[in-house]
Write a structure and sequence with these properties.
Layout: E1 2-4, E2 7-9, H1 22-33, H2 47-72, H3 92-101, H4 124-132, E3 143-147, E4 152-155, E5 160-162, E6 166-168, E7 177-179, H5 183-189, E8 194-202, E9 212-214, E10 224-227, E11 238-243, E12 257-265, H6 271-284, E13 287-289, H7 291-294, H8 301-314
Parallel strand pairs: 3-7, 6-13
Antiparallel strand pairs: 1-2, 3-4, 4-5, 8-11, 8-12, 9-10, 10-11
Helix pairs in contact: 1-2, 1-3
């Protein structure tokens, strides 16, 4: 759901405007009707301009711009539009139909619905995968370098591993040494953008039946609340998610909070060219970037598993 003023509206907003008072519905509908996508204006290349072009200035000003500024900060100005398959697709006609028939229309992205294990948490998936190859995993080692000439990977405790082919899933910015990589590609890596997020747990159950809610209000530090008690009958409490720069007071990492320094890779306008150059060169040297951080793409985990299986078949 989305918190707008003193009420919650279902997500996506453009398919659920019918949940607002009639006069507000008229304001939203008029703005969408006048949006660039409905008047023949070419689609812009910047995400922030696309928001107005696609959704009109009322949704942009009340929800999308303030929410995404909370998520991405000043980086919002640098985001492109090539990643929009992650967002819902709702036409003006579908928005109008939803208001007339008082139900949502339009297409939701694949991750709008998902499954969880019947027992334990989501991490159970990865625990079982790891158990099946337990003799091939080493824990508590931080990879710090790749040597592209010798195909040796080193960790910060001095361990070395040599391989014919190397697959990396960690953020490229985490490597202290990339021996043999051209300086131009190293410079490209330095231009990749990402956000850090603090997740904080509270034991209280909040009202409502949502799995999570978005909060565009700039005066509220967090951008999302996840209602843990609505995920499983035996669980309780809720989480807040806050971009690190918006955390009031000191950043915490302890019993009830977790600072994730790599939460979201940002889809900046120049990122596709950077990653194409980087991954193509690495592939020629039998090194493969994979997943959310290896490819610096905002993939959800189901997509990452599919990509991993596909890469395994190819190599």
């Amino acid at each position: 759901k989305i918190r707008l003023g003193d009420r919650f509206v279902d997500h996506p907003l453009e398919a659920n405007i019918w949940q607002l008072p009639t006069l507000e519905q008229a304001d939203y509908l008029e703005a969408i009707a006048n949006a660039g996508c409905n008047s023949g204006t070419p689609m812009p290349e910047k995400f922030i301009e696309w928001i107005y072009w696609k959704l009109g200035d009322v949704i942009a000003d009340n929800y999308m711009i303030p929410y995404n500024r909370k998520m991405f900060g000043d980086n919002l100005e640098q985001l492109g539009t090539y990643w929009l398959e992650k967002l819902p697709s709702v036409s003006f006609r579908e928005t109008l139909l939803s208001c007339l028939n008082r139900k949502a229309y339009g297409k939701q992205p694949a991750h709008a619905e998902f499954y969880y294990p019947k027992k334990f948490g989501y991490g159970e998936l990865w625990s079982r995968m790891a158990a099946s190859i337990s003799d091939r995993i080493e824990y508590n080692k931080k990879v710090c370098s790749i040597d592209f000439d010798s195909h040796v990977v080193k960790t910060d405790d001095g361990s070395s591993y040599k391989a014919d082919k190397i697959i990396t899933t960690i953020p490229w910015l985490e490597f202290r040494t990339l021996n043999g990589m051209p300086d131009a590609l190293k410079s490209d890596i330095g231009r990749l953008k990402h956000t850090a997020v603090q997740i904080k747990y509270f034991p209280t159950n909040l009202e409502g039946d949502a799995h999570w809610s978005y909060f565009p209000d700039p005066s509220v530090s967090y951008h999302r609340i996840l209602y843990r008690h609505n995920w499983h009958s035996d669980w309780k409490g809720h989480w807040t998610e806050t971009r690190a720069e918006r955390v009031s007071g000191a950043l915490e990492d302890g019993k009830t909070s977790f600072l994730n320094p790599y939460a979201y890779p940002l889809n900046t306008i120049d990122k596709p060219k950077i990653m194409r150059r980087l991954l193509d060169w690495c592939k020629l040297n039998n090194v493969y970037g994979l997943g959310r951080w290896g490819e610096h793409s905002h993939y959800n985990s189901d997509v990452v598993v599919r990509l991993a299986m596909s890469l395994a078949e190819k190599i």
